[in-house]
Recover the amino acids of this structure.
């Protein structure tokens, strides 16, 4: 068993949070080494053993655009749909949605940008064009009774455009909400957010009539500020956070984007704050260490670095 932090709650924070695990999709998509389908399926199955219930499985993006995820249908078929678990898939457009539905997807996510340059570089369109690409997907999902999540990239800074005005992000979030997107994940794609910036953006979005219960936060740890930014989000009432097991991944289409916030680092902080995640940290550390071995490099997570045992005393799987 790993040593856990002593519990010292802070006043005014939520008692419980949801961790939305993005490692199998957002984490692996940035890896240059192609991971075989069987390993991806095993990764997701093992993550389910930790108590994580929301695990984004893959993306039905064009295989030419992201070769790592060319086996999306095979992965979705291989992991099944056990009761109590959510396995959303990312769909970039109507064609991707059609493929996802054919493969049996029961929850989807769409992807837009808060900045014009990133929309051009990543989606080969404009901010308006990305929203229009997402609109029929959201409509079709609603008709099928499928929940939709909306990712908004570059909410806190853009490597080409620099500072991103709050109003620009609010406008995109408001338009997604108006189209029926259930959860809007605000992405710090290049990891430049600071706690005051997080609070200012959340207050601006709240002022536009979008409740904190409809928001999630997706931080990268480029400058080491991800956990501080999470704390700022908690203080504002956000209770859903994206993270990647072991801290793998980043955005392959954005300069300066280092790894995602590690799920273990997030669970460690939540545990010390007395916030319930439902996640077994010991098991999660071992799974991330196992996956790092498959990728041929150490996991970026600080907690995995501190606690991983190459040969655990008791088998976990």
């Amino acid at each position: 068993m790993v040593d856990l932090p002593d519990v010292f709650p802070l006043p005014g924070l939520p008692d419980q949070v949801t961790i939305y695990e993005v490692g199998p999709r957002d984490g692996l998509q940035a890896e240059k080494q192609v991971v075989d389908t069987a390993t991806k399926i095993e990764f997701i199955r093992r993550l389910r053993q930790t108590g994580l219930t929301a695990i984004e499985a893959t993306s039905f993006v064009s295989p030419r655009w992201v070769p790592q995820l060319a086996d999306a249908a095979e992965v979705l078929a291989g992991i099944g749909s056990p009761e109590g678990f959510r396995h959303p898939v990312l769909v970039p457009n109507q064609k991707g949605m059609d493929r996802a539905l054919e493969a049996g997807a029961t929850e989807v996510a769409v992807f837009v940008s808060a900045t014009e340059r990133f929309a051009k570089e990543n989606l080969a369109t404009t901010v308006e064009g990305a929203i229009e690409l997402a609109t029929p997907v959201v409509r079709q999902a609603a008709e099928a009774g499928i929940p939709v999540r909306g990712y908004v990239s570059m909410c806190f800074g853009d490597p080409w455009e620099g500072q991103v005005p709050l109003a620009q992000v609010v406008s995109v979030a408001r338009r997604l909400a108006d189209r029926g997107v259930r959860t809007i994940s605000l992405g710090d794609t290049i990891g430049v957010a600071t706690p005051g910036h997080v609070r200012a953006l959340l207050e601006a979005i709240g002022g536009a009539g979008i409740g904190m219960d409809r928001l999630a936060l997706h931080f990268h740890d480029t400058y080491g500020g991800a956990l501080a930014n999470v704390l700022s989000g908690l203080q504002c009432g956000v209770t859903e956070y994206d993270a990647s097991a072991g801290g793998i991944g980043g955005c392959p289409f954005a300069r300066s984007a280092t790894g995602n916030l590690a799920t273990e680092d997030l669970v460690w902080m939540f545990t010390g704050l007395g916030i319930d995640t439902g996640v077994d940290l010991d098991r999660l550390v071992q799974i991330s260490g196992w996956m790092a071995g498959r990728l041929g490099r150490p996991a970026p997570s600080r907690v995995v670095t501190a606690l991983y045992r190459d040969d655990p005393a008791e088998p976990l799987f």
About this structure: The first strand starts at residue 18 and ends at 21. The first helix runs from residue 23 to 27.
